[in-house]
Design brief:
alpha/beta; TIM Barrel; Lyase, Ornithine Decarboxylase, Chain A, domain 1; 2 domains; 6-stranded antiparallel β-barrel; 18 strands
Length: 397
């Protein structure tokens, strides 16, 4: 008898379970709300686009958006949040920022009603209709996108933001193009003007001031420029550049508890780490002095010592290259990672935690274990660790 083929839903469920494996990702939604409050206080009255692109930096876009949105009961009391914004509850985002239309539609399908800023705008002419139908706010950053909108038969109903490249050298029209677009009688309902900073994480770097001046100059040269809503500040600028305060801020990495600056946070500012990542010890053994550990035997035991093996590897998003400073927390003791990271596991030096047993959890980062230290050991940044890690998410509220 021929075996029955699994359905696509069954295959999807199996794939999800395979990807989850034994890696635990705990997300503290209350911490994210607290960090939003910090962003709001640091932005001095700016509305907040909570940036939840890349699946909310690995935290789960829908869950984070729902945690930063009012309940149905709240909406019945306050009216249409999408139309009026929400400045009355510091726990709620005034809007959300995502990268793609698909990310935005996922939020709309989950019942999110706040404004949604689509940072890369439409990627085809057909996508312009989706922007209108689902009440999305696209960012126009390319002259081709502008032409799609300018030629659209419903362009008077298409609300859009224009992005100016003031020196980032990435997405955005040039300042002279922005002036020409905003001065044209094209019928497009321009809502706002925005830019993005290249060096805001370096508070001593004057390039951010040059970008602010360039942006301000564009606004001043357009008759309607000062009437448009404006947005400049990312997380780093929220923390370090009060000159970048405008109608809207776009906090991202700080929402998840990570320091966006190249130095300590300003005095009195505290962020709460929202994600904890852990995996169980699956084996412990004592190896003799001189024994090699892992592929290519790049690390050898300096003495007879206990070695533990943790069920998390590069297939779960841990960078394969870690230097000798990489550690994980086992029962409050920092245990160095030894040898090369394998696909499904890592080896750790258990001498700091001699009582560790199979089943004990090793924490890679969390409120009490630095993600920045692990990122430095991998030669990367905390953004990459957050967005790469895979596992079974549990939400704490």
């Amino acid at each position: 008898m021929q075996a029955k083929m699994p359905t696509s839903d069954q295959l999807a469920a199996w794939e999800e379970n395979l990807n989850n494996r034994s890696v635990h990702i705990d997300v503290d939604l209350a911490a994210i709300r607290a960090n939003l409050r910090t962003a709001r206080l640091s932005s001095s009255g700016s509305k907040q686009f909570a940036t939840i692109k890349a699946d909310a930096y690995g935290h789960g876009a829908v869950a984070v958006a729902q945690a930063l949105s009012p309940s149905v009961e709240d909406l019945s009391l306050s009216g249409d949040l999408a139309a009026t914004g929400n400045q009355n509850n510091e726990n709620y985002a005034d809007g959300f920022a995502v990268v793609s239309v698909d990310e935005a539609l996922q939020l709309r399908s989950a019942g999110i009603q706040q404004p949604i800023l689509v940072l890369q705008g439409p990627q085809s002419q057909d996508a312009c209709a989706d922007m209108l139908h689902f009440n999305l706010w696209p960012v126009i950053h390319d002259m081709n996108q502008y032409e799609w909108y300018r030629q659209h038969k419903q362009r008077g109903e298409l609300r859009a933001w224009l992005k100016v490249d003031t020196g980032m050298g990435r997405l955005g029209v040039q300042p002279d193009q922005a002036i020409a677009i905003l001065s044209a009688q094209d019928g497009i309902q321009w809502m706002g003007l925005m830019t993005h900073f290249a060096c805001a994480d370096e508070p001593d770097n004057p390039f951010t001031l040059q970008q602010i001046e360039q942006f301000t100059s564009v606004c001043a040269k357009v008759e309607r420029g000062c009437d448009l809503q404006q947005s400049m500040a990312n997380s780093a600028a929220v923390m370090a550049w009060p000159q970048a305060r405008a109608d809207w801020a776009r906090p991202g990495i700080m929402l998840y508890g990570c320091n966006p600056l190249d130095r300590d946070l300003p005095e009195g500012v505290c962020l709460q780490m929202a994600m904890s990542v852990s995996a169980p010890l699956i084996s412990t053994k004592v190896l003799p002095g001189g024994a090699g550990v892992g592929y290519a035997q790049t690390w050898r035991c300096p003495e007879q010592m206990p070695i533990g093996y943790v069920a998390l590897g590069y297939r779960d998003g841990l960078p394969r290259i870690l230097d000798s400073s990489a550690c994980v927390d086992v029962g409050g003791a920092l245990c160095p990672v030894v040898g090369r990271v394998s696909m499904d596991s890592i080896a750790i030096d258990l001498r700091p935690a001699t009582d560790a047993r199979i089943g004990n959890m090793a924490t890679f980062w969390g409120p009490d274990t630095s993600i920045d230290a692990l990122a430095k050991a991998a030669g990367t940044i905390n953004y990459e660790l957050l967005t790469s890690i895979r596992g079974r998410r549990t939400y704490i509220n």
